[in-house]
Design goal:
Largest sheet of chain B: 9 strands, mixed
CATH superfamily of the largest domain in chain B: HUPs
Order of helices and strands of chain B: EEEHEHEHEHEEEEEEEHEHEHEHEH
Distance between the termini of chain B: 55 Å
Number of helices of chain A: 6
Shape of chain A: globular
Mean pLDDT of chain B: 97
Helix content of chain B: 25-40%
Largest interface: A-B, 81 and 89 residues
Shape of chain B: elongated
Strand order of the largest sheet of chain B: 9-8-7-10-6-1-4-5-11
Oligomer: heterodimer
Bound molecules: flavin-adenine dinucleotide, adenosine monophosphate
Strand order of the largest sheet of chain A: 11-10-9-12-8-1-6-7-13
Structural class of chain A: alpha/beta
CATH superfamily of chain A: HUPs
Low-confidence stretches of chain A: none
CATH class of chain A: Alpha Beta
Number of domains of chain B: 2
Helix content of chain A: 25-40%
């Protein structure tokens, strides 16, 4: 069984981003970029499925700038077998990415797409659901427990009320949540080996997909900061202040 | 113009998050209709919500725990009559709405915190560190709404018409297996007036009892950081943050939580924030209105006692 793992190159989760003074966007020049943390978890899960003999081949896919090759190399170093870069310097929004991924799925015919539930830059939480829709496949989102066997996946989903378990027929799209696994670090030998693994480059036009953004991010501003508070010296003082000053008790 | 809001029910009544989505829908301009779905549901409670024109009821056995496939297919069927499809950004809304949007070839706007016009919205990006104004260029719009950013619509006062809808054929692609629901006597985390959250500093699940006692005095819900959930101290549905629940109570008490941006993203719109941490450099103190530096194992029981005293005096 082939597994496709879409991975996005995003600003590292430890970076405190800055909004540009002209409010045109976020300043990401010279900041550390990494694989979206949820996609690392998806990649790890695919590798575990391969180690368990369930998956046979893992294909990592990224849509974005040429530098997204670095992210794909990370996926290859973790254990993906080959990679595809859908190269574009245009802004790619979730619906466009879903269409690009759907085109790759049609070519590669995987049984499972394992991806992140959310990209930590746009925080959209859409692409997996959209991909499943475009393919007419079932979806299991926010997955934190997974078994794949007998042509179906049983997934524990982190929902607002607790954990919901559903079974989806394969082929299916799964989006993963934080507690599914702890992703491995790539070892140095594997990083070296990854350099020789195949990485194909295609363009959105090759896939026949119009990626023009439908949403215009017309302005990006700094959120209003909270006023600096005070340190209190004791529990008594805290309760006093909450009562009289803040009026929340 | 008209708006369809997917309203979730909570024990028969419209869920608070959906009431907030109804308020947002009202700001889009046009009539507001509701869709309720489930097994054995009726539209009576939804019909009483102020400002609603019509309630569409999708009642069928296979909708007891609606799959994304069935819910999205239903929305696609209803979409021609509407300019906007709206839901709260709950786990249900997040699961279903993008699927419907893609089927309609619409780019969804997620987690809207402000409606500036029928096609113009504000939403956070980068874990709440930037606030974007987004214009949708599609002919119809699909939105999810951050419930804490809108006051809930009044649950009473309306008199909407209620009618059943025809259902598309059920999908057999996915099936419900079971649900583990965390039981609690406490208020629900996302709508509680007071939230007490614990982090890695709590040290164990056992120690969360200290927070339970504090929460009891305050009538609060209990939340947690990701680190506390990952460590198994508390269940996943306690997680507050960028990728957990978004809360904005009148009072948020963060105990043994350092204040990573991913956690702040879920609670920094709280009215008053209290931080209790033994590390005076903890970033949580930068957003806290009141900071108390010290050992939580000493301070929390003291605080619980002091609050009891303050209450009875
Ligand atoms: C993709 C991604 C998504 C994430 N999403 C979320 C999210 O939604 N929510 C979330 O919370 N995090 C999230 N995180 C994790 C986040 O980055 C932090 O790791 C996490 O919030 C830290 O939790 P913590 O503050 O409890 O733990 P720590 O950072 O370890 O802090 C523990 C604190 O407890 C204090 N302490 C210890 N002992 C005591 C004591 N006896 N008395 C008083 N204070 C004490 C310490 O001084 C310290 O400040 C996410 C991370 C990633 C990568
Ligand atoms: N440009 C991209 N390239 C590859 N995968 C992507 C891209 N954008 C989003 N994804 C995938 O979709 C998931 C959800 O992203 P989003 O809908 O933007 O929050 C991510 O975790 C990735 O797995």
């Amino acid at each position: 069984m082939k597994v496709l793992v879409p991975v996005k190159r995003v600003v590292d989760y430890n970076v405190k981003i800055r909004v540009k003074a002209d409010r045109s966007g976020v300043d990401i020049a010279n900041v550390k970029m990494s694989m979206n943390p949820f996609d690392e978890i998806a990649c790890e899960q695919a590798i575990r499925l391969k180690e368990a003999g369930v998956a046979t081949e893992i294909i990592a896919v990224s849509a974005g700038e040429p530098k997204a090759q670095e992210t794909l190399r990370t996926a290859l170093a973790m254990g993906a077998d080959r990679a595809i870069l859908i190269e574009s310097t245009d802004e790619l929004q979730p619906l466009a990415v879903a269409k690009l991924l759907a085109a790759i799925v049609k070519k590669e015919d995987p049984q499972l797409v394992l991806m992140g539930k959310q990209a930590i830059d746009d925080d959209s939480n859409q692409t997996g659901q959209m991909l499943a829709a475009l393919l007419g496949w079932p979806q299991a989102t926010f997955v934190s427990r997974l078994t794949v066997a007998d042509g179906q996946a049983e997934a524990g989903r982190e929902v607002d009320e607790g954990i919901q378990t559903i079974a989806v027929k394969l082929p299916a799209v799964l989006t993963v949540d934080l507690r599914l696994n702890e992703p491995r670090y790539a070892s140095l030998p594997n990083i070296m080996k990854a350099k020789k693994k195949p990485l194909d480059v295609v363009k959105p036009a090759d896939l026949g997909v119009d990626v023009a953004p439908r949403l215009q991010y017309v302005q990006v501003e700094e959120p209003s900061a909270r006023k600096a508070g005070v340190k209190v010296g004791s529990v008594q003082e805290l309760v006093q202040k909450l009562k009289t000053e803040a009026g929340v008790l | 113009m008209s708006v369809l809001v997917v309203a979730e029910l909570d024990g028969g009544a419209v869920a608070k998050a959906s009431l907030a989505a109804i308020t947002a829908a009202g700001q889009l301009g046009g009539d507001v209709d509701l869709l309720v779905m489930g097994s054995g549901v009726d539209g009576s409670a939804a019909g009483k919500v102020a400002g609603v024109r019509k309630v569409l009821v999708a009642d069928a056995a296979h909708l007891a725990h609606p799959s994304a496939e069935d819910a999205a297919a239903l929305l696609v069927q209803l979409a021609p009559a509407y300019d906007h499809l709206v839901a709260a950004s709950t786990s249900f809304g997040k699961n279903v709405m993008p699927r419907a949007a893609a089927l309609l070839d619409i780019a969804q706007v997620s987690d809207v915190i402000e409606v500036l016009g029928p096609d113009r919205f504000k939403r956070f990006i980068y874990a709440g560190n930037a606030l974007a104004t987004v214009v949708s260029t599609d002919a119809k719009r699909v939105l999810t709404i951050r419930p804490t950013a809108f006051a809930p619509a009044a649950a009473e006062g309306g008199s909407a018409s209620v009618e059943p809808v025809d259902l598309p054929a059920p999908s057999d692609l996915s099936s419900f297996v079971g649900q583990e629901v965390s039981q609690s006597e406490r208020p629900e985390l996302t709508s509680a007036r007071v939230v007490v959250s614990g982090g890695r500093g709590m040290g164990s699940g056992e120690n969360f009892k200290l927070l339970d006692e504090l929460a009891d005095v305050l009538g609060a819900a209990v939340g947690a950081s990701r680190a506390a959930v990952d460590a198994g101290f508390v269940p996943n549905d306690f997680q507050v943050g960028q990728t957990g629940k978004i809360v904005a109570p009148d009072l948020y008490v963060a105990v043994g939580i350092s204040g990573a941006i991913q956690h702040l993203a879920g609670m920094k719109d709280s009215k008053v924030i209290v931080a209790i941490n033994k590390d005076e450099e903890a970033p949580m103190f930068q957003v806290a209105d009141y900071g108390l530096v010290g050992d939580l194992f000493k301070l929390i029981p003291e605080l619980t006692q002091e609050l009891k005293r303050a209450k009875s005096s």
